[in-house]
Every structure is written in structure tokens, then in C-alpha cells.
Prior knowledge:
- By secondary structure, the chain is mostly helical.
- The protein has one domain (3-340): Na+/H+ antiporter like fold (Up-down Bundle), CATH 1.20.1530.
- The chain has helices at residues 3-27, 37-63, 66-72, 74-97, 101-112, 118-129, 138-169, 178-184, 188-194, 196-202, 210-220, 223-240, 247-274, 282-290, 299-307, 311-340.
- The model has no long low-confidence stretch (mean pLDDT 79).
Amino acid sequence: MGLVDLFIASTIPVLKVLLVTGLGSYLAFDHVGILGDDARKHLNNITFFVFSPALVYSNLAKTITYDSMAKLWFMPLNILITFIVGSVLGWVVIQITRAPSHLRGLIIGCCAAGNLGNLLLIIIPAVCKEKGSPFGDPDVCQTYGMSYASLSMAIGAIYLWSYVYNIVRVSSSSRSKDVEIINDSYIAGFVVGLVPLIRKLIIGDEAPLRVLQDTALLLGDGAIPAVTLVMGGNLLKGLKGGSEIRKSIIFGIVFVRYVAMPLIGIVIVQGAIRFGIVHDNPLYQFVLLLQFALPPAMNIGTITQLFGAGESECSVIMLWCYLLASVALTVWSTLFLWLVS
């Protein structure tokens, strides 16, 4: 597989994200008025509590079994490593930039928590469909790729709402019960996949309760376009300005997410492969590497909204991180594809 083919396979998914994100930003303009603040809030709630859990459930239930979990055990550890390394680097950014206390939780969160769900759910299927993809049959690639992305999304959500949520909460006296609801909405896919009796009832063309799985798939299909449109609308806040966040803080977060983390990720994942900790599956290895090179999780913006801490600053950080993601993701995806192919 040539370098040009790898570059094309990496570019197409990112372009798809940019196009849908751009549409979301356009719909959020005042003179258009389709995706205003209230509309984004309602769509975000529907996506968060209906579409995304349905997507995670349907994909995990279909592909997660005892055998597959035995092979995928390294992914939760890999994601935990991204949070730990990102937190340490975020602390370094705070010390160097002397960031104000009310932004410290935001900075650590942006450095620690990558967009482990939404972007992977877009990038992986797109890479699988490309002719130059090193992952074999597109249908098989997409089936397993979506399970990897869904598992990443579920684990990432648990870490995000258990860790980043509380880091931001420390600087605020308010509380929210949404975190309990969100974490609970992700337990079902694992249960269905891992319990043979339940799996036979729901999964498969002959399953008596297959309508439940079909309904979850139908709802889950709405998650990717909805969340990407909302992301585009939210980024418009950063474009409008209204924040005096230091450029050094933005540069520090961008450097951590797009330079330091991917390089550390290569060392960690390649080391795990070399010592036989990660099984010989190019697609799985690609996902593990990609988890180190993603922009900050968009749900960090939701957390700042819950506590009213650094909301405008978060919008500016997200704007720059996602603008630069088009270049960073393409470059790193090309390198990662070359490493695993």
C-alpha cells in the first residue's frame, strides 16, 4: 500500500467530518436560525440520552463476547493511559503558562480526554470503505471497527464523567445528577453480548426479540450526524470570540494533543505489540494508536456548561483544536496506517 493511498484513506474521513461540522456551524448562524442555542441543547440531549447509548448498545451487543473481550482487554488500559499521560502533560501546561485557577480543570480535561467516540465512529467506517485500506473486506472491517469504536466510546464516557467531570466540579459548588444517568446508559451492550441466553434472544436473524436490536440500530444511525452537527454549532461560539484566554494555553493544549500524545502513543502501542500484549490485528492496533491523536472530547463543553466554569474559554479551545484536527488527524492517521499495514 503506497504512501499516496494511505494519505487518501486518511484524508477522506476527516473531510467528511469537516463537511458535516461546517454544515452545523452554518445552521447555527443567527441569520439561518435552525441550530440556535436552544435547538443545539435539545438535539444534544436527544443524542446524549437516546442516539449515542443506542449506537453503543447495538454495536457492542452484536460483536462483544467472552472471546472478543479476552482479546480487547488492552483497550480500557490504553484509554486509561491516555488520561494519565494527558493529565500529567496538562499539569505541565498549567505550570508553564501559569493559568488561572478557574481554568485548570478545563486545561487538564482537554489534555486528558480525547474524542474517543464520535470521531472514531466516523473515521473507522470511512477508512474501511477506502480502496487503499489495509484492513481487508470493507464489511468485516466496518463490523469490527464499529465495535472497537463503540467500546472506545463507552469506556471513554465512563472515564470522562468519572474523572474530568469531578476535576471541573472542584472549582464549582453546583452539582449535577446527569453523570449517573449517562454512565448507566452504557451497562446493556456488554450484558447482551456476554450473556449467551440473552444474546440468543436478541441478536441474530432468528432471534425472537430481534426487533429490539433492529430498533437500537435504527436509533443509533442518528447519533453520528446529530452529534457532528451539534459540534459544528458549538464551535461557532469560539469563532465569535468573547474570551480572553491566553494564546500560550491554547498552544500548550494543541501541542499536547497533536504532538506529544501521538508520539507517546506510538511508543506505548508499539511496545505492547512487540511484547505480545496486543494481538496481531491491524485494525485494532490502528484504533489504539488513533486514541492518542484525537482532539479534546466535545462533552467537556457540556461539563463546563453544567458548572458555568470556563464555558467561553472552552469554546475557543475547541475551535482551534478542531480546526487543526483536519491536518493533525490526516498526518497521524497516514503514519498509523503505515505502521500497522
